[in-house]
Amino acid sequence: MKWELNRLSEIPLTKQIYQAIADKILSNLIAAGTLLPSVRNLSKELKVSTDTVIQAYRDLEKDGFITRLQGKGTFVNQREQKPVPKSPNTLPYAWQLSVQDYLPRAYFSNHAQSHEKNNLSISRINPGLFPNRFIEKLISDELLQNSKSISTYGEIQGDKELREVFARYLKKEHKLKTSPQDLLITCGSQQGIELVAKSFVGPGDFVMVEAPTYPAAIDIFRSRGASIIQVPVDQQGLRVDLLDPLVEKYKPRLIYTIPNFQNPTGAVLSFPRRQELLHIAQRTNTLIVEDDPWSEIYFDGCPPLPLKSLDTYGHVIYLKGSKIIGPGCRIGVLAANGTLLSRLIAAKGLSDLGTPLLNQKVVSLLLDSKRISTHTEKLRTALEIRRDMITEMLKKLPDVVTVNVPTGGLNYWITLPACVNTDNLLYEAKKEGVSFMPGSAFYAHAPECHHLRICFSSVDEYSLQDGVHKLFKVMNRAVKGRKE
Amino acid sequence: MKWELNRLSEIPLTKQIYQAIADKILSNLIAAGTLLPSVRNLSKELKVSTDTVIQAYRDLEKDGFITRLQGKGTFVNQREQKPVPKSPNTLPYAWQLSVQDYLPRAYFSNHAQSHEKNNLSISRINPGLFPNRFIEKLISDELLQNSKSISTYGEIQGDKELREVFARYLKKEHKLKTSPQDLLITCGSQQGIELVAKSFVGPGDFVMVEAPTYPAAIDIFRSRGASIIQVPVDQQGLRVDLLDPLVEKYKPRLIYTIPNFQNPTGAVLSFPRRQELLHIAQRTNTLIVEDDPWSEIYFDGCPPLPLKSLDTYGHVIYLKGSKIIGPGCRIGVLAANGTLLSRLIAAKGLSDLGTPLLNQKVVSLLLDSKRISTHTEKLRTALEIRRDMITEMLKKLPDVVTVNVPTGGLNYWITLPACVNTDNLLYEAKKEGVSFMPGSAFYAHAPECHHLRICFSSVDEYSLQDGVHKLFKVMNRAVKGRKE
Questions:
Q1: How many domains does the structure of chain B reveal?
Q2: Is the confidence metric ipTM above 0.90 for this complex?
Q3: Chain A partners of B287 at a C-beta cutoff of 8 Å?
Q4: Whether residues B159 and B235 fall in one domain
Q5: CA A350 to CA A346: how far, in whole Å?
Q6: Which of A32, A187, B229, B325 has the greatest count of CB atoms below 10 A from its CB?
Q7: How remote is the C-alpha of B365 from its chain's centroid?
Q8: CATH classification of the domain holding B345
Q9: C-alpha of B2 from chain center
Q10: For the HTH gntR-type domain, which residue ranges apply (chains A, B) (predicted)?
């Protein structure tokens, strides 16, 4: 229930609260039956008087959005039909509630931007771990040599030089043989998923994802009107052995997988499973989307070859983001073959006419420099130290808590006893100034609510330690509370 | 019919040609009944032997894609059902042709990237007209002060500082009162259109556009499965007087308009029409998308107030790109109100998690500097001189050619006698090394094929003069050929 009120607006705060809640209900962002925050809690959260909240709730009840049950709380109604407010002209912007939309309003973004001091929720690398001065110099040099890169458009497919550099990089780092012509430069791998979804997924299609998986991918496929089929993940990644009957039954448009240091579990897809997955795709003419955000960050040996390196007939679309090479640049690369690639390039053109050229030049210089391998090595070491530190700390958790110690990547996946709901735990943790990603965010259906993910790379070491300590207390309380 | 063959690929060139043409036919990018290039022309264009093309055409005919008629040429077949090649494993990537997709493969991109020396087809400002050294210094200073802007993510809605600067800029330049909370930073206004389409337009919906209009907008709305209703444009812009019955009949999800220096005609929507348009939107609960790419580039006085400045109930979504302020940054801004804005912010998060921070910082510094107003003034002067130069040149065209002298913006819209087809003219012009946008690109249906658009700001002055001279010859030949 996070939103900001606009105190400069002419619209009274009551109306703003009304509209925000009505909007979330109409878009299914708040499901029917959901318990809304108490008047006291919401007024605290939004920093408004309780009277303001009471009035907003009263109006929402009058218009059929919610029901207040004495002593039980305020609940969202089952909607029979879209309630449209009575007098649009007295309520500014109220007519907008009648505007149909096609996005599930990104459930993901509910969690994506947390403002807690100890924010362990986002999978990012701390800016302090980047060679910022070096990058700064690269940019200055690039601008000195070619100051027009700021006032020029690049090719829609991406700057040729960067594609050449990426082809070399992918070959060297991931044994992936691609030609620059097979690559498309994107705004981060997030845009890569979007381009794939927009090109190949439509209403009524089925899409297979891992359970749990990256929340934004779920939202993106859903926003295309697709139905999501979940396939469980174990220690060796996607349960490929379960795929055959599911693919047979649903004929999914694509299978979305994160084979290396799976998000959120950290699992690595074993090599035999990689081969089997590809065989299934070939047998059934299915697309595979291989999302590979941070395979360079390994602590206990390099992960197996990417699926894409085994792909003869163009079934795999490979995505790599810029997380470890200047995330602020928002540069990603997509590798695909044949006519699928040309369709993705067309989609990219429609989306934004191409990625900013300056950013491409910067990443190109960085990837092509000798510095990149030392940077990656340093990053590995720095993050391994953090991982080990957290592993030590987590040993002290009660036995009922299970921790997957990651062999690479940026996250820990922690499993609490089944009766502990981590959505509630997050609420408690935020009071202490700590945030994490609750397990529920990672499932398309039937969420397992007793997991949580923490990222050990996003904040500085002190805040990390401090955050984990505080989270400890909260977890311990919850586990004990369960016993009582 | 523009594409590149991959000479490094293991796929034989014949198969590549086969797949590229089959793919375009399957996606309706080449319509049934279209005459394909002759074997000789295609072999010249692709730089392959005639035998290679003959073989590809033979295979396409065998698989039911095309028919070759002796002495008449090669035509695309009406498709009864999707032909799927017989033996996928002998033809690499051939299985991909059976993959359904949801994009019309961006007809726009057919024209968007021309490689002719005198490229007058794209509406861009020549990089030489930007204060590149100044921008370079801004970037260096920013990085010195805050080198982490390259390794940090920004807010999904956009950097707060940039939103503040934009709010001031929009107020000063366009009398548009917005608060930073009402703004969303996008990757160019192209992404703005995309976000709106993805949020509010779906299969079977109607969307109203001007005829002619910006080709990529047509493609974007179509890629959402919408039906496009065209409303003609005259000297005072969109024929608002025709709207009422159309809106009544089709209940469009939105009306897309470019009120200032309309693309491609250059028309300016009169103030009374702006008011009337807004009244219609209010009466009918319709969204208006106001695309305003270059209203700062006026030669004969400032255009009327934006629609958005008259918008009380949040019917207008205002889009502004970064064309005149460092197009390589690909920064745009979207102004909207109420719940529509929150839905657009969610869509932005899903698309790319936010615009690169460095680029936002650069545009922020630039817009906030005193230099921006001198830059804009200089740009106006430089482009006015070019416009006048071209106006003089165009006076020498035969009387049957009509030219709209633009009062702002970047383009000329030229009308030839109805029997001259500018698609064919483009083919002739390209032989001389000149390209332009043919009229057909700007219509969703029933294209008027005797117009063309040239941009007078994208190349340097010498190439512009040279290009227009060469185009002259081609146009004169076509007009005379018509008489003979």
A1: 3
A2: no
A3: 99
A4: yes
A5: 6
A6: A187
A7: 28
A8: 3.40.640.10
A9: 18
A10: 11-79
Domain assignment present for residue B5? The answer is no
Interface subset of A 11-70, CB within 8 angstroms of B? 19-20, 22-23, 27
Residues A353-370 have pLDDT tens digits of 888 888 898 889 888 888
Cis check for the bond before B212: say yes or no (omega within 30 of 0).
yes
How many CB atoms are located within 10 Å of the residue B146 CB? 16
Last residue of a domain, one of B370, B386, B413: B370
CB contact under 8 A, A102 and B200: yes
Q: Is A340 a residue whose pLDDT tops 50?
A: yes
Compute the distance between CA of residue B434 and CA of residue B118 in angstroms, rounded to an integer. 5
User: Does residue A3 belong to any structural domain of this protein?
Assistant: no
Q: How does pLDDT run across B221-245, given as a tens digit for each residue?
A: 988 888 899 999 999 999 999 999 9
The residue of chain B nearest to residue A221, with distances taken between CA atoms, is B350
Residue A469 lies in a domain: yes
Give the residue-averaged pLDDT of B298-316.
Answer: 94
CB B439 within 8 A of CB B450: yes
Q: A170 and A71, same structural domain?
A: no
**Which structural domain range is residue B54 located in?**
13-101
Q: Are residues B25 and B75 in the same domain?
A: yes
User: Rounded distance, CA A264 to CA A411, Å?
Assistant: 7
Candidates B291, B279, B289; CA nearest to B243 is B279
Task: Tell me the C-alpha distance between B475 and B484, whole Å.
Answer: 14
**pLDDT tens column, B245-276:** 999 999 999 999 999 999 999 999 999 999 99
Q: What is the pLDDT of residue B260?
A: 97
Residue A402: CATH number of its domain: 3.90.1150.10
For A37, which DSSP code? P
Which conformational region is residue B401 in: left (phi greater than 0), alpha (psi within -120 to 50 degrees), or beta?
beta
Q: Judged by CB atoms within 8 Å, which residues 373-432 of B form the interface with A?
A: none
> Which pLDDT band, with edges at 50, 70 and 90, does B25 fall under?
confident
Q: Which residues pair with B415 in a beta bridge?
A: B402, B451
Helices (H), A318-458: 338-352, 357-368, 371-394, 422-431
Q: Are B150 and A103 within 8 A, CB to CB?
A: no
Q: Are residues B197 and B275 in the same domain?
A: yes
Query: Per-residue pLDDT tens for A15-43?
Result: 888 888 887 777 666 777 888 888 988 88
* Same domain, yes or no: A194 and A259: yes
Mark residue A237 as left, alpha or beta (left: phi above 0; alpha: psi -120 to 50; beta: remaining): left
d(CA A110, CA B404): 50
3-state helix, strand, coil in chain B (%, to 5): 45, 15, 40
Amino acid at A258: I
Check: CB of residue A315 under 8 Å from CB of residue A280.
no
Question: CATH no. for residue B24?
Answer: 1.10.10.10
In whole angstroms, what is the distance from residue A260 CA to residue A383 CA?
A: 16
* Separation CA A24–CA B345 (nearest Å): 13
Count residue pairs from A and B with Cβ separation < 8 A: 316
pLDDT at B87: 47
Q: In A113-207, which ranges are continuous DSSP H helix?
A: 132-145, 160-174, 188-200
pLDDT for position A110? 62
Is pLDDT above 50 for A109? yes
Best mutation target, B7, B10, B342, to test chain A (most A CBs within 10 A): B342
How is chain A split among helix, strand and coil, in percent rounded to 5?
45, 15, 40
DSSP for B402-450? EEE--SBSSEEEEE--TT--HHHHHHHHHHTTEE-EEGGGG-SSS--TT
CA B99 to chain centre: 27
Query: CA of A308 to nearest chain B CA: how many angstroms apart?
Result: 14
CB A169 within 8 A of CB A367: yes
Q: How confident is the model at residue A91 (pLDDT cuts 50, 70, 90)?
A: low
Rounded to the nearest integer, the mean pLDDT of chain A is 87
Q: Which residue type occupies B190?
A: Q
